[in-house]
């Protein structure tokens, strides 16, 4: 999709900033974008609806007002926000072939995508701490994870995400852009935007690496440490039934951590190490990271968490019985 104007025609004459960038879909499959938009739309519906149902169930069920489920509601809210931050441009590209995104809108979208990713990582760490206290120190569980502390941990996740990611658009605004205006994704992603700059991006690279280490890196290390202590405690339980019961309470969280971190690590390695002539590997991994995580998380917790499954069953049974009652009244 060639731009309507040349790069120099759309650059600001003083700072060499483009008026807009051009987003891309999936390389080589441009003619099929309208068909690809169908599964993407389904995924957005599942992500938004599934996480909304999780939030509704936790809010309306007093027995779920426990630390584990409060953290889950934070995770669901973050997943919804992440989906909402990519939805406008992704559907514009695939449904309407509208590729333009204004420069400052692109920076804003990039900030929100990275901020919500950082928040999700912090919430996964908080959930690992919750499982650590519940299994390793169950007698002090309610004393350690009070509602005020849980709210404080949520606020720290938000503030850390905002504080760490706020410099990203600022560092990009100082750069001149004269190489190209065509991005590799259907949304604005920091490494992708950064590579279009024609000035020195050394500071951006160093800060980006520091971000990965200080947020995702530290979080993942503490999550692994939490599960090392959990495993040590579980192996000390005498009965096999007790060990399985303790581990079963961690299955949903472990799957969620893998769903989040495996694509994230792969994406980071591809951007920093991989040298590809085709942008397809970058596009594929970034799409998996941003689209699948909000879709799979509510499905995992709905299937693997007995309490949520029971409430869902009651809700559907009540609706079904209500529908039959209305039919019978006629």
UniProtKB/TrEMBL annotation:
One of its GO terms (cellular component) is plasma membrane. Keywords: Cell membrane, G-protein coupled receptor, Membrane, Olfaction, Receptor, Sensory transduction, Transducer, Transmembrane, Transmembrane helix. It is a multi-pass membrane protein. GO terms for biological process: cellular response to lipid. The chain crosses the membrane at residues 34-58, 70-95, 107-129, 150-172, 205-230, 250-270, 282-301. Its main location: membrane. Residues 50-301 form the G-protein coupled receptors family 1 profile domain. GO terms for molecular function: G protein-coupled receptor activity; olfactory receptor activity. It is found in: Cell membrane; Membrane. InterPro entries: GPCR_Rhodpsn, GPCR_Rhodpsn_7TM, Olfact_rcpt, OR51/52/56-like. Pfam families: 7tm_4. Belongs to the G-protein coupled receptor 1 family. This is Olfactory receptor. The gene is LOC100021201.
């Amino acid at each position: 999709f060639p731009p309507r104007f040349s790069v120099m025609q759309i650059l600001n004459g003083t700072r060499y900033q483009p008026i807009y960038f051009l987003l891309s879909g999936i390389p080589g499959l441009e003619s099929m974008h309208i068909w690809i938009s169908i599964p993407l739309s389904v995924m957005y519906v599942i992500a938004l609806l599934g996480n909304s149902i999780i939030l509704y169930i936790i809010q309306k069920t007093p027995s779920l007002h426990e630390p584990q489920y409060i953290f889950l509601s934070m995770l669901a809210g973050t997943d919804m926000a992440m989906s909402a931050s990519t939805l406008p441009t992704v559907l514009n590209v695939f449904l309407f072939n509208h590729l333009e995104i204004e420069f400052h809108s692109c920076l804003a979208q990039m900030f929100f995508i990275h901020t919500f990713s950082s928040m999700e990582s912090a919430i996964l760490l908080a959930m690992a701490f919750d499982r650590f206290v519940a299994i390793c120190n169950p007698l002090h569980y309610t004393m350690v994870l009070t509602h005020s502390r849980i709210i404080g941990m949520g606020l720290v996740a938000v503030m850390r995400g905002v504080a760490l990611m706020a410099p990203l658009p600022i560092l990009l605004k100082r750069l001149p852009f004269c190489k190209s205006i065509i991005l590799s994704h259907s949304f604005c992603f920091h490494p992708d935007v950064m590579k279009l700059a024609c000035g020195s991006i050394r500071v951006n690279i160093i800060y980006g690496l520091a971000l990965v280490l200080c947020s995702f890196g530290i979080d993942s290390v503490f999550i692994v440490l939490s599960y090392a202590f959990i495993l040590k405690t579980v192996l000390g339980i005498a009965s096999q039934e007790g060990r399985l019961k303790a581990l079963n309470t961690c299955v949903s969280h472990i799957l969620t951590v893998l769903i989040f971190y495996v694509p994230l690590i792969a994406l980071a390695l591809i951007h920093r190490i991989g040298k590809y002539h085709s942008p397809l590997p970058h596009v594929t991994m970034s799409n998996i990271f941003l689209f699948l995580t909000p879709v799979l998380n509510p499905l995992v917790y709905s299937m693997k968490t007995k309490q949520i499954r029971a409430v869902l069953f009651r809700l559907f049974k009540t609706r079904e019985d209500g529908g039959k009652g209305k039919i019978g009244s006629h």
